[in-house]
Structure formats: structure tokens, C-alpha cells
Amino acid sequence: MAKYSVHQQPVETLLSWIKSGEIAIPEIQRPFVWKNTKVRDLIDSLYKGYPVGYIITWRNPDVKLKNGELSAGKKVLIDGQQRITGLTAAIVGQRVLNKNYKEISIRIAFNPITEKFDVLNKAHERSPQWINNINPIINDEISISKAIRKFKNENPEVDEDLIEERIENLKKIKNKQVGIIELDHSLDIDTVTEIFIRINQKGVVLSNADFVMSKIAADEQHEGNKMRKLIDYFCRLIVDKDFNKHIQDNDPEFAKHEFYRAIKWMANGNDNLYVPDYIDVLRTAFTYKFSRGKFSDLVALLSGRNFENRSYEDEIAEKSYKILAEGLTDFVNQTNYQRFLMIIQSAGFIDQKLISSKTSLNFSYSLYLKLRSEGMPEARIQHFVKRWLVMSLLIGRYSGSAESMIDEDIKQINEKGVEAYLQQMEQSNLGDGFWDFGLVDSLETSSVNNNAYNVYLAAQCYFNAPAFLAKTMKISSLIEQRGDVHHLFPKKYLMNNSFPQKAYNQVANYVHTEQATNIKIGMAAPTEYMLKVIAEVNNGSRTLTTLDSETVLWENLKENDIPLLINDCDHTSYTEFLRRRRQLMSKKIKTYYESL
Q: How far apart, in whole angstroms, are the C-alpha atoms of residue 241 and residue 583?
């Protein structure tokens, strides 16, 4: 039995399928990321009869209804969204959303004399040799004879037969063939992905989340299409508050739905910390409500897959959509969302850049929603969520095959309970060897995107640590204000002593300090500038520091995990200094973790 079919269809037929809903095009409501010049090139290729790549559809399975009958599944477009959207914009005249979520028109101009296409601009508008918009001609809004007469009147010197031929060729674009590969519903996601990659020949990864989004967008029976909007609109409202008016003005049907009531608070809300995209929303809601981690399972469940007898049943699909809707609604719930952000901030993660793994954040939110739905006391929820987030960041839990790890973790938590499983994870991954050696080694890096270093900064924010050599300025304030990161051994000083970039930019050489202090230290060796600091705190001058006693100075060094060795350090002690500071930083992280 063939698992797919390949056939050709004219552009006109393809666009009629989109209009009628025979092929569901989920991306029509998403930002159009192509540059207008790519639309021009697509039209040019169709005009010249060049291949424009295949449109790939994947047929939803036929599902068994309660009365025993089979309901035919729709075709879901899984590749070709940008080409289809480009065609509907240029040929049908439909407005599209740009990356800033603003509706724009894409007008393609045509020069019949040179047979060139271009994006309409002021120069083409002024030139009589350019037809300003191909859309009315291709769509029969203007007859060929009228278009030829108009062009001939404005360009009397041109050959009328030549112009007639070329305008007729322009009109024939809608008859040009586009290849369509229709994949059978029985193909699994891995096979579909492999086909996708081979056809694209670019090694492009097709996310399983994109399959889910395509699937729910194609579903009207269980309101999957509205769930798709809930996800997209919520993510847009986080970054564009004005989009709320767009929903009210342009999607009144959705604006009356309970899904809109669930998300409209974000039009006045704020999130500079999490900022989830559609994959994050889907991932979190799915893991929380289905206790699974693999999106391929969600595709199967939404198709009505009965894993026991391998059939497809409408009752399973209906139940799966209902559960997903509950998960999405819980995700966007204002109380849930804001309380979760508060927990993350209270753990010291005050800035988005301190969390380098969005998957760790997603799982932590899934865990929060799960524990809250089970009625666990808030204080215990906070304890487990904070520890899980930090533990998963420190060990890079989701840096590899994230779906498999998520699947394992949520199932183990269900089976053993979060407390027992977290304890098991700690015993396996956070023993003395980790704190004394593994974490210390992880801090031997020049990358500020390093998980261990970011957790260290979160710990500093959590403990409200002061900036280096500052009495009142806090590290958290400098991180929020993008304040100076100072090299304890100044960069130019180390460069002058032949240290390479990888050496002088070690994170163990970084400390947050006020800009004025950083500038005044300049290129001095630590032993040199620390002598001045000690003199200042004793004589009351305020050039390098705002600290006012040696006792406060030693406390400041301790809070910034700086070995006292710094008082006697020059470049010959640099390597030993870094080793000792990494050990102190690791101890700080351990103290922080144990206090969560």
C-alpha cells in the first residue's frame, strides 16, 4: 500500500482548496517571514515554468464515530506555508501579517517589455512600462484586452502582439502546475520528518510541535482552530500589547470566546522573564495535562489513536482536545502565570539572560501546574519548583534529547511523587563529587551563557549580594541595568602579560561593580589597586570604593566569593586565583541550592 501520492495541480486549484478549507493552512494566521523579493522570485519562477518545490500535505486519519461510521480526515499543510501565503498575497490580494504583526499588502509589478517582475515601488509606479499590480489581471478583474489597451496607450511604441503574448502568459500563471505530495495518515512523525528533510534538501528540521500546531489549526469540530489562536494570540500579546485591538477589531468571533477572556489580561500584563513562544506553551500544557513528553504522542491522541488496538476513535480525539484545552487554559491563567514568574524571580532569576534553558523553565511550569492542581500547599510547591529548575540547569538535564528526558521525568514524578524523585535525582547527580569537582570544572569557561555561571549570578541575586567594592549598590540592580562586568585581573593588564582572550575572559575573573570603580581601577594589578582600596577605607577617601572599614571590605570580598589572595596577586598568581575562586563560587551555589 502506497504511503504517499505525488501529483500536480494548477495554482488556481490549489488556492481554491485553501479558500474552501479542503487543505488546512495553519500558518495563514502567523507572521509571514519571507521577504517580499522572495514572493517576486516565486511569481517569476511560475511565469517561466520553473519548478517551485513541492507542497506537502499529511492527511488526518479517518476516525471512527460513535455510531461506527468513518469520518474522512482533512489534509493538513505541513510544508509550503510561506509559498502558499505568498501566492494568496500576490495573486488573490490577501493582506498578510508581517513579523511585527502588522497587516501589509504585497504588490508585485510586471514589465511586459523586459518580462521582469519586481516588488512595487515609487519608480515602478511612475514608469508607464510597469503594470503596477499583477493581481487584477490574473484574477480576471481586468480583461486581457483592457490591460493590453491601457499598456499600449501609455507605451505607443511597443509591439502590440508582443505585449498581448506576455500579458496572456502572465494570466496563465494561475494555470501553472505545483507539485503536491500527499502523505498517508499511517506514516509516523519520524518518517514524515525524514521525507520533509529529503525533499527540502537543506537538512531543515521540522519540529514535531509544528505538526501539532498544523493539526489543531485544521480542527474545527473540537475547537482546535480556536486553541491555535489562543496560543498564538497569547504569545503575541506578551510582546505587542496593541495586538489586543487587532483581535477585537478583526476577530470578533474569537473575542467572544472563553479563550479570549482567558488571555486578554496579558494586554496589560508584563513578562520580560519567560516570554514563551508557541512551542513553549504547547510543551508545558501537554506535559502537565497528559504526563507525556513526546509531541508525536500528542499528534496520535488528537487523531483519536487507540494505542491498544491501533485504531482511531472520535471519542479519544474528543477527550484529547478537551484535555489539551484545559492545559492551555491553565497555562495562560493570570494567577498561575504570575505566581510562577514570582517563584522564578524569588529564586534569583531576575533577568531572562540568567536562564539559558527554556526547556528547564517549561518543565518547571508544568511541575508547578501539576502540583497546584493536586492541591499541594504553596510553600511546598515553591520549594520543589525552585529546586527542580536549578537542579535541571546545573546538570544540563534537557540539553540533549529533551523530549525523552521530559517524558521520563514526568512519568517518574507521577509514579514516585515529586519529593522522592527529586531526592533520587539529587543523590544521582548532586553528590559531593559534583560540588567539589564537577561544578568547579563547569565554571572553568569563558562563556557567560554557561549554566553554572548563570546559576551563580542567580544565587548572588537571591542572597542580595552587594556589588564589588560597593556599600549599597546590589548585583541584582547592576544586572537589571546592564551594569559593568569588571575583570578582577584587568583585561589589558593580562593582555600586556601575554594572556590569551580565553584566559582573561574566564567567568571566575568576572565581578559586577559600578562603572566608576571599573574605570578608576584601569589596568592596575590586583595587588596594586587593593593596596589603594585598603588605604581608602582606613583614611575615609572615596575614589575606588564606597566601603568605610576593613571589616566591611573583607565581608564584601566574601560575599563576592573573592579569595583574600587577591590582596597579593599579580599575573603570576592568576591561575591559582581562578582555581580558588571557582571553588568558592561552587560553594556559594551549593549553599544557595540547599536554601531553596
A: 45
pLDDT for res 549: 92
Give me the pLDDT at residue 541, please. 83
The predicted pLDDT at position 196 comes to: 65
| pLDDT number for residue 235 | 92
Q: Give dist(CA 454, CA 438) in Å, integer.
A: 16
288, containing H or E segment: helix 278-290
Low-confidence ranges of the chain (pLDDT < 70): 1-2, 18-19, 21, 23-32, 60-74, 97-102, 189-190, 193-207, 483
pLDDT at 203: 46
**pLDDT at position 29, please?**
43
- What beta strand segments (E) does 152-308 contain? 177-183, 305-306
Residue 101, helix vs strand vs coil = coil
The 3-state DSSP class for residue 37 equals helix
Return d(Cα 119, Cα 122) in angstroms, integer.
10
* C-alpha 159: how far from chain center: 54
What's the CA gap between 446 and 138, in Å, rounded?
58
Q: Which residues contact 280 (CB under 8 A, 6 or more apart)?
A: 274, 358, 361, 362
Sort 495 into a burial class: Cβ within 10 Å, 0-12 / 13-18 / 19+: middle
- The single residue listed with the C-alpha cell 575583570 is 487
CA 44 to each of CA 37, 47, 50, 141: distance values in angstroms, whole numbers, following the listed order: 10, 5, 8, 21
Identity of the residue numbered 204: V
- Coil, helix or strand at residue 324: helix
